[in-house]
Amino acid sequence: MSGDRSANGARGAGGAAPARAPAPDKVDPQVLRTALILVVGALAVVFDTTIVSVALHELAVGLHTSVSTIQWVSTGYMLALGVAVPLSTWALARFGGKRVWMAALTVFLVGSVGSSLAWNAGSLIGWRVVQGLGGGLMLPVMTTLIMQAAGGRALGRTTTWVALPALFGPILGPLVGGAIITDLNWRFMFWVNVPFCVAGLILAGRHLADDTPPAPSAGAARPRLDVRGLALLAPGIATVILGLSNAGSADGFGHTDVVAPLTAGVALLVAFTLYALRHRDPLVDVRLLTARSVGSSSSVLFLSGFSLYGAMLLLPLYYQEVRGVSALSAGLMLVPQGVGTLVSRQIVGPLTDRVGARSIAVVGFLVVAAATVPFSFVDATSDGRLLALWLLIRGIGLGAVTMPVMTAAYVGLDRSQIPHSSVLTRTTQQIGGSFGTAVLAVVLERSVSGTGEGALVSGFHTAFWWATGFSLVATALCVWLPGRAQVHAAAARAAAPPAPPAPVEVTDVR
Known about the structure:
Radius of gyration: 23 Å
Number of domains: 3
Number of helices: 22
Number of strands: 0
CATH class of the largest domain: Mainly Alpha
Order of helices and strands: HHHHHHHHHHHHHHHHHHHHHH
Shape: globular
Helix content: over 70%
Distance between the termini: 40 Å
């Protein structure tokens, strides 16, 4: 294990060994270079998701279809994302990170151009599925490559770069999307991705190290795709997400469109878990969930979907439905939250390396809960400047939650386990986000009893109280995250030089 880390740290992004080993608490410049190369391409995925989310009504009008049909522009993308994520473990072992990254980025580029040229709702949904397949590979591959390059050192600081696309997306995505919808044709939304994809491909082709796996030795076989595992896991994730996406209505979870796919999806995921526990080399090693770092971070990421992602549904809706602002104005009003997250990133990464994820995540969730409470009392005339201040504070809390929890998922793992952890945490985060969004959408729908502005405002108050409660529950789960002792022990093992081979004892037979 140590040998893998040392070799990886020496290779870096450009293949040249650094003049000296970096300090354990500093990010290796080669790791930073790798992160920047990958982040450029990943920004296309993040911008695309946040831009499209504010434009569904305009897409329905532009393509002469219903909102219920055009909703599949987002749903189809999310389903494809869920199908593609599990493939990343096998693809990395079979083809190497550089080739998989460039292939996934190319698929996303093709899907973006196709979406911009869509001639009806069906073609747009189809091209969005292509985008989802590329994006589903890109996100776990990016995390895996950066974490493998870090080799277990300075994980907190390294994670700040992994999280960079997710930080810029909420700030700039709604603004760009609102501006395009207001002043340009909807097709330009998908052309925004093209410069990031092209630049990402050029940078990766020139500067990422060629990590193509060597040809297997005589008698050995190349990594084989676990087809049976894929046939259980991919549709399991997709059908669970489909059921959750259908739950955000007044009927909630009690109708066939929700119950049927949820039941089928959970059954498939249970079947995959039982299969993977018996399989020697499964598509995704679920046994990693028994490791404290992976199990705790996956649990917190799942529950954070209720307090973090669910509230992200409520906030723009409050500004648009209660205060009556446009999509562009709602995006502008949410900027302080993104700024707060970006600011806290500079502090939280280094601090996580010193004190561990547990205490920082606890404080972060408490800050998120406290900054959500004021929205349980707002109405159409509430002071916008005061709300902006609370959003700034809430963003600081979000940054103090997401990065430490992401970091915790890789504490103490060796190089071969990192791809599996990336898939597990990405999947639990995705399902948790869909679950949280669906639950709070149902709470909001059912809380809006009656007509008029008073009923609408009361419904938002109830939904924001639920979001606050979920944040407090997530706080309790954080005590399971790795603390200072575990983080320092894992960093020390990663920084230690490889053990010398044991001396061979020679017996004199004369």
